[in-house]
Amino acid sequence: QWAAAPEAPRLPLLRALKSETLQSDSGGHAFSKQGDSLLALGAVPAPVGPTKPVRLTNRLRNLAAGALATHLLVSDNVTERAAAAKTLQREATPEMAGLLQQRLTAETDGAVKSQLEIALARLQLVSPQPALRLAAIALLGHSGDPETQALLTPYTDARHEPDPAIRAAAQESLSKIQHRLLLGDLLGQAFMGLSLGSVLLLAALGLAITYGLLGVINMAHGEMLMIGAYSCWLVQQALAQLAPQWLAFYPLIALPVAFLITGGIGMALERTVIRHLYGRPLETLLATWGISLMLIQLVRMLFGAQNVEVANPAWLSGGVQVLPNLILPWNRLAVLVFVLLVLLFTWLTLNKTRLGMNVRAVTQNRAMAAC
To answer: What keywords appear on the UniProt entry (predicted)?
Structure first.
């Protein structure tokens, strides 16, 4: 009943229900727990006796989400109305059809109106009137949501839908949705390829510089990446134990730490092993391969054979929704940006500094650069 007839005074209570902060006293009065204090949600300013939290079942939680969404449809905030309309596409019940029709007529924002049309069309799919079902199927064909595809699929089956015109319309709408989903899948795969390829590009860049400067095929290069990854994990664990308030920034702290640790190990290997094998490519290849095996076993002894988890901080969690079936994760976007910055820094170093000129000279003609 609340969902079908929203009233503004109920909003604080519904918000407390959704956030699971609702509490009640012995008199049945409602309060919202805000930290250590209680905020009154009714006429009684203070609780009578002790309060206890209100527990919701899954069914009540879904009903509360639907009721909150219908109440937010009358909000002055366009973002809240759009989110509410999106929620009602999944949570709307037949009793809300009249309200949705009313809000659709009154809505002025085009994006919110489109979301409301889809929510109403989902309700009209089960209408006994063929004309309403046909109109709903045609409207849902403009959606690119995978859930809509699953919703329309039964209407192409004669056992579920006896009307051939509706079955044909459902098939046409499904074709449109599948075309949009295909675009999202292709873009998603391309983005995943770019993010993975960017990491491999950094690895290849290091190999190219190492081989160009030293003439050494470093078979332990991948293990250097492994050491950098474990350095990042160690920084995360250290901050969690010693400075949890800085844990959200561990990737920024781990970046120079991983660079210094990996660089230090690389310098030690060059001075102790590789320096004595210059000019002998087969021996350096075998030596670095042996070093890679030693590093792998060392890591297994220190950290175990199982993978360890490097968790995303909150500011790298989530993503940007570009299409209904395409979300670009923030962590992969950050990887792409980082790789571009490293490439820019490398290019500037090689082309705009004296060190870069020396590196290019050694790479292009080692004998001439030694003069």
So the answer is: Amino-acid transport, Cell membrane, Membrane, Transmembrane, Transmembrane helix, Transport
